[in-house]
Design brief:
With 117 residues, the protein is mostly beta strands. Helices cover 0% and strands 51% of the residues. It contains no helices and eleven strands. Strands 2, 4, 5, 6, 9, 10 and 11 form a seven-stranded mixed beta sheet that branches. Strand 5 and strand 6 form a beta hairpin. The chain is globular, with a radius of gyration of 14 Å.
């Protein structure tokens, strides 16, 4: 099991920036998958950005060119730099990790991001 703790959410005006962080309780280097999802009120949880098992990155079309995912293996952390934020980016953002020979998903508790003037 992996404990994941997100931080960095908050209230920001449209066009602003936020940086989210997700700290894992153990080494992330060999995780099958690690990334960010979000869930807005009344909507399904959706993938925002992630590292796959091959080490490549993937982004939702709606955030390409605005969001950047990065990782700090030494500190077992991934980050999500969010620029040019829009009201439609408002959601609870969750960190997810998939580990193990028999894949297991673990989720963080979520952090609220609100984009509003």
């Amino acid at each position: 099991q992996v404990q994941l703790v997100e931080s960095g959410g908050g209230l920001v005006q449209p066009g602003g920036s936020l940086r989210l962080s997700c700290a894992a309780s153990r080494r992330i280097l060999n995780f099958r998958f690690m990334g960010w999802y979000r869930q807005a009120p009344g909507k399904q949880r959706e993938l925002v950005a992630a590292f796959t098992s091959s080490g490549s990155t993937t982004y939702a079309d709606s955030v390409k060119g605005r969001f950047t995912i990065s990782r700090d293996n030494a500190n077992n952390t991934i980050n999500l730099q969010m620029n040019s934020l829009k009201p439609e980016d408002t959601a609870v953002y969750y960190c997810k990790a998939t580990t193990g020979f028999t894949p297991r998903d673990d989720w963080g508790q979520g952090t609220q991001v609100t984009v509003s003037s």
